[in-house]
Amino acid sequence: MPVVSWKQxxxxxxxxxxxxxxxxxxxxxxxxxxxxxDGSPRLSAIExxxxxxxxxxxxxxxxxxxxxxxxxxxxxxHAQPGEAxxxxxxxKLSGRAFEVTAPSERRAWIERAKPAGDDSHLFRVEITEVxxxxxxxxxxxLLIKLWRPARGVVVFRRH
Length: 159
Known about the structure:
This protein is of the alpha+beta class. The protein is built from four helices and eight strands. It has one domain (6-129): Electron Transport, Fmn-binding Protein, Chain A (Pnp Oxidase, Chain A). Helix content is 24%, strand content 43%. The chain is globular.
């Protein structure tokens, strides 16, 4: 499955990217889905950050979610849904999260972000899918926008 960077996604779909950033910016903690060693899902709280045009996930040292991502980078993150109003879409983003291990990048991140510890984990996200779900009040319909690389946006409406 093709993947793109946040920069590529936001250049291709700026309006959806703005909705995604707004929803993730509305709350500090969100829900991350990773895969355990046995293939079963694990849900964890996560903070989502942007550095310039790069989407990042940060994690405490040795956390299960970080170990899951090291083993299998596939993930999904759901923006905190409890704080959205009817005008704000629900947002889910899927892709792969790769740990940043280059010493110079890690040092720069530690100086900038001041994580819980120097051995905290930094992951860079590459996107495979973005879904927003909102309400078109005028039409009385649920409005779902599904974006995938090389396919663009597909819109679904439900009564």
